Amino acid sequence: MRKLRVLSLSVLLFAVPVAAHHSGVAYFDLDASVEHTDVTVVAYDLVNPHGRLVYTFTAADGTEVEWSGEMPSANNARRRGLGGEMFKPGDRLRSVMGSPARSGSNFMRLERVVFANGDVAQIAGPNAGITRAAQ
Amino acid sequence: MRSGSLTLAAAAFLFASSAGAQADFEGIWRPTHPPRMGQPDPATVRLTPAGQAEYEAFSPEKDPTLRCLMPGIPLGLVDPYPIEIVQQDHQVLILYEHFHQVRRVFTDGRTAPDHWVPSLIGYSTGEWDGGTLVVTTTHLSPDNYTWTAGFPFSGNENAYVVEQWSRNGDVLTMRGEVHDPTYYEEPYVVNARWEFDPDGEIWEYECIPEFAGVE
Questions:
Q1: Does residue B49 sit within a domain?
Q2: Per-residue pLDDT tens for B161-175?
Q3: Which residues pair with A15 in a beta bridge?
Q4: What is the predicted ipTM?
Q5: Model pTM score
Q6: Nearest Cβ partner for A75 among B81, B149, B150
Q7: Does the distance separating the beta carbons of B39 and A49 come in below 8 Å?
Q8: Which residue of A22, A48, A107 is in closest CB contact with B207?
């Protein structure tokens, strides 16, 4: 119930339209968006047919919440310069944003990640890739 | 004498042109599909009452790729990965990076043998209509669907898929018609596009089952 509240609040705060994807519409609400800030990477696997980023963050009520974000396939991610060394356990990330799962579980289709140094990884869409922060 | 030779040469050229009307699709092709992966606007798809019921009862878990199986046809007609095409005398091979899917399109006039069982990839035959390769695929599996947005596929004996492949310069296009009168009032049409990529690569697509499903 607590997790659902977190999701609902996030959806209200960050609802923006995102581009449709061929395989995402059945599982993810592509008309909604959820964003988490100050997250810590727990695990990262870049595999086919989908990679996955697992992370935790501290919710507004002080509890630690774990979420997972679906990545593109390893092949597609590597072709876009989103290689396997992008995240490692313990990394701190400024924010993680994506489309929430229709199931209501703590799961999203990743759209964008902002690293601690300000670099931005656009995960999905035609502009996928890494944008380096201005030095 | 000289005139006769020219006539013979012209006749030979015309014969060769006619016999060689088939296009050259050989090589690696990079996907540049239209928006929505070449799928129709869902609002334009005309379902039968049975198709509508199946659409509303759609279960995404039916997707074979969530079990690390190749998408098959019609689901795998279009995907965001490169393909390689090999043309032989008796068949055209379509080699998909996606799930290592391989299609054999027999172009030597054979028909599906009686013992062929329905499968994800079915049985494909092709005929050249000038520079267009027309592929007909039958014997498809009911354990599949037309598209992940919820469009079903009956896979029964009346269901088949027709594709028209053609090349214009460095662009390869495919118009696919999913004929499934049990679920669709008219064929479900997809349009795919690739660009010739002579330096492209086909990568291994290992699939890890633990990451194939969704939470």
A1: yes
A2: 999 999 999 999 999
A3: none
A4: 0.80
A5: 0.82
A6: B81
A7: no
A8: A48
pLDDT of residue B62: 81
Tally of domains in chain B: 1
Give residue for tokens 């492949």.
B165
Give how far Cα A135 sits from Cα of A117, A119, B57, B124, Å: 10, 10, 53, 56
CATH of the domain at B190: 2.40.128.20
The 10 Å Cβ neighbour count of residue B183 is 26
pLDDT band, very low/low/confident/very high, at B123 (cuts 50, 70, 90): very high
Residue B183's domain spans which residues? 22-200
d(CA B210, CA B215): 11
d(CA B124, CA B104): 7
* pLDDT 10s digits, A26-72: 788 989 999 999 999 999 999 999 999 999 999 999 999 999 999 99
Please check whether residue B168 is in contact with residue B194, taking contact to mean a CB–CB distance below 8 angstroms.
Answer: no
Asked if A48 and B211 come within 8 Å (Cβ–Cβ), the reply is yes
Q: Where are the domains of chain A?
A: 2-131
Look at residues B80, B94, B71, B93 and name the one whose alpha carbon lies nearest to residue B35: B80
Query: Does some domain include residue B69?
Result: yes
Can you tell me the distance from the alpha carbon of A44 to that of B70, in angstroms, rounded to the nearest whole number?
Answer: 25
All residues of chain B having their beta carbon less than 8 Å from the beta carbon of residue A101 are 214-215
Residue B39 contacts residue B147 (beta carbons within 8 Å): yes
- β partners of residue B9: none
Q: Is residue B207 in a domain?
A: no
Which DSSP state fits B1? -
Beta carbons of B211 and A51 less than 8 Å apart: yes
B3 in a structural domain: no
**Tokens standing for residue A104:** 């209501």
Quick check: B65 and B99 in contact, CB under 8 A?
yes
- B80 at A interface, C-beta within 8 A: yes
Cis status, amide bond into B74, omega within 30 of 0: yes
